[in-house]
Amino acid sequence: MNAFIGVLVLSAVALSLAGCGEKPQTASGRKSDQAAWQGTANTSRADTGWTAGDRESWALHMQKRAQDQNEYTRTSVPARASVSASASVSASAP
Amino acid sequence: MARMKFICDTERCIECNGCVTACKAEHDVPWGVNRRRVVTLNDGVPGERSISVACMHCSDAPCMAVCPVDCFYRTEEGVVLHDKDTCIGCGYCSYACPFGAPQFPSNGTFGLRGKMDKCTFCAGGPEANGSAAENEKYGRNRLAEGKLPSCAEMCSTKALLGGDGGVVADIFRTRVLTRGKGSEVWGWGTAYGKPTAAKPAPATRS
After folding, report:
1. Domains of chain B by range and CATH?
2. What ipTM does the predicted assembly reach?
């Protein structure tokens, strides 16, 4: 009887420890990203005026789009005439 | 190649939170995570200033430096992104970032302090551009769609400028010279400037 209980306890311990078993883990590391100029799979949302896969075309398009944030180019209000690139402003181009 | 930057013009920000809303809506950002937020200094006092704050995509990003699993990377456009499949949610980046950009969801799939989430400059993540997996983990990839970040494009007063660093700096420069004031660009020197501190003196043994 004692032997039977012993076997039962050992089996229970073995089964309960099986839950703590180490699962195989594979460290894949950081994935590499696809460049933005290569375009998107969701083409229905893509802006027109540039060619997916053409880096220069994308860069020019983005510069043009960034210029759309400049109200002096979007409206007829002129910027101050004395604006010069050499003016001392803390926002210098990187 | 473009170097993507944000500039927030504190003379123009009216604390409308349009940028925050645009970001939330565009990427379906979960409750409790704020990739972008508006901070007001001296609130209620005449001369108060509001600033829209998010990841500044630093040239020398401290979050990248401290990440123990190296989940951060910088794209060729200068956007600092991270791989959520590698992130272990330790929070080191949150302590290192001077802008409070890294956010941690307090509920949801990963439970308390899950995978870090932050502004992606609307550039998605390491999944395929525009894929469902990328959209689910990081939100929309507007850069791959040929668009600029939603927050900047939705800004009603154009206080928040985003895009190629040279272009947005030129826009800001023209603006400052035209109005004749407000030349301070919040965060610019911290995120994009060069270290100016003098070298520490070499330690001497007594």
Report:
1. 4-192 (3.30.70.20)
2. 0.86
DSSP E strands in chain B: the ranges are 4-8, 37-41, 49-53, 72-74, 80-82, 160-164
Interface residue B178 vs chain A (CB under 8 A): yes
Using the Cβ of B158 and the Cβ atoms of chain A, whether some distance falls under 8 Å is answered with yes
Nearest to A93 among B76, B169, B184 (CB): B169
Q: If contacts are CB pairs under 8 Å, which of residues 35-64 in chain A contact chain B?
A: 35-43, 45-50, 55, 58-59, 61-63
- Structure token pair of residue A92: 């210098």
Q: Residues of B numbered 16-55 whose beta carbons fall under 8 angstroms of chain A's beta carbons: which are they? A: none
Residue B141 three-state SS? strand
End-to-end Cα separation, chain A, in angstroms? 83
Global pTM reads 0.81
Per-residue pLDDT of chain A (94 residues), as tens digits, is: 788 888 888 888 777 777 677 777 777 788 889 999 999 998 899 999 999 999 999 999 999 999 999 988 888 777 765 444 444 444 444 4
